[in-house]
Specification:
mainly alpha
């Protein structure tokens, strides 16, 4: 932290610096900043060391199956008057 500067301004300056040596390099560093101290409890938070895998968001489903899934979801919340699906 820069001495003599408000902690909120200090954090903002760290985020907006263009030189690599002043960048906040990790979430942990940002969360340990005094401005965020009241929002961060290291004892109550976990750290995930594995990379996030988003492959599940790109399944190989045919268009017809997607239509069927959307229809089933809609009918689950808005059933037909006679109760059929």
């Amino acid at each position: 932290m820069v001495v003599g500067i408000r902690v909120d301004l200090d954090l903002a300056l760290r985020f907006w610096r263009y030189l690599i040596r002043y960048l906040v390099h990790a979430v942990e560093e940002a969360l340990s900043h005094p401005y965020l101290a009241r929002l961060h409890d290291a004892q109550d938070e976990t750290v995930c060391h594995a990379l996030f895998d988003s492959d599940f968001e790109q399944p190989s489903i045919q268009e017809e199956k997607i239509r069927e899934l959307i229809m089933m979801e809609a009918l689950a919340f808005n059933p037909l008057p006679d109760g059929t699906r």
